[in-house]
Amino acid sequence: MGLPLTCLFIVFSYLFIFSAAAKLAPALFVFGDSLVDAGNNNHLKLSLAKANFPHNGVDFPGKKPTGRFSNGKNVADFLAEKLGLPSAPPYLSLISKPNHTNASFVAGVSFASGGAGIFDGTDGILKQALTLKKQVRCYAAVHEGLVQELGSAGAQVHLSKSIFAFVIGSLDILGYHGSDSKTRNKTTPQQLVDSMAATLKEELKTMYNLGARKFAMVGIGAVGCCPLQRKKKRTKECNEEANHLSVKYNEQLKSLLQKLKTELKGMSYSYFDAYTVLLNLIQKPDSYGFKEVKAACCGLGDLNADIPCLPIATYCSNRKDHIFWDLYHPTEAAASILVQNIVDGTEEYTFPMNVRQLAAVAA
Question: CA 296, CA 327: separation in Å to the nearest integer?
């Protein structure tokens, strides 16, 4: 009997050590828009930006729509997996439960909301969203709960090792790009990106004051290449004006992060160049296993972009061949590749380190 028990002990010890080693951070807190929304908008009655209906979620575990704007997992889900954590649950789903006062946010939570932008007014068209400022306010309430649960010192240690991911800004760019000439005459592209960066800076400083130390910042992708933007062009090529705005903002974001690093003691960050990586997928699809780079998988009409991914729409059977799931959002296959680069990307795409290296920084 002694040998089997010894073997069993060794197996369980190994599994325990492996499990501990696999977890790169104690928690993941997600801030952003529909690219990482895990279902918060399901709980916003007025919001038009919802994905809690078919054909969304057709490849998600359980094959049911969850509120993610994807056929399956999104960027936030894959990021959590890479960190050895469960997917960050939507904040509004937790506090909407009858016993929400007992909800624990120790492993993290998602505040991301479809239609959210850096600016407060970004949600106007889609009626209701948790804009960045609102998301940070929600985090302040979570911080208070963690202090009560872990104690002030315990919460600070826990949060200093956690990852705070931000995927936001695309709607601010697209909103400006699609605005009338009067709006553009009031605000130049440079003034726009300067204002976006300044607004974001204040929210990041608030987060820092509430314990955040490790920031995973995802730049804006090539938004001009999404199906809806291509559809507007007779040639069906990318909208370079929208892409140019993304590049300008990303430059400001990188500069902002470098400055904050010198201002805020103990702050670390990883910036991910989503623009270049997404463009790589589009320009060299064969290298990544894709065949369709222009059309959405789910929708109707020209490039499947005349009508969004509603229940009346059709969706492709070869979803792994497509970069885009719907008008704007990547497929699960594309999201997986993006996160591979976020976590383990070289310095060509991540600066000054990738998220795996960020997680390893001593808190």
Answer: 6
Helix (H) or strand (E) holding 218: strand 214-218
User: What amino acid positions are annotated as catalytic residues?
Assistant: 34, 326, 329
Indicate the pairing of strand 314-315 with strand 163-167: unpaired
Peptide bond into 55 cis (omega under 30): yes
Residue 83 is predicted with a pLDDT of: 98
The pLDDT of residue 181: 60
The candidate with the shortest Cα–Cα distance to 39, out of 57, 26, 62, 27, is 57
pTM of the full structure: 0.93
3-state SS track over 256-299:
HHHHHHHHCCCCEEEEECHHHHHHHHHHCHHHHCCCEEEEECEE
Q: Which pLDDT score is estimated for 126? A: 57
Instruction: Note the pLDDT of residue 8.
Output: 47
Find out whether 115 and 41 touch, Cβ atoms under 8 Å. Answer: yes
Q: And the tokens for 244?
A: 């140019």
* pLDDT confidence of residue 128: 83
d(CA 343, CA 49) in angstroms, rounded, equals 28
> What is the maximum span of the chain, computed from C-alpha positions, in angstroms?
83
Phi, psi of 136 (to 5 degrees): -65, -35
SS3 state at 166 = strand
Segments of the chain with pLDDT less than 50: 1-3, 5-21
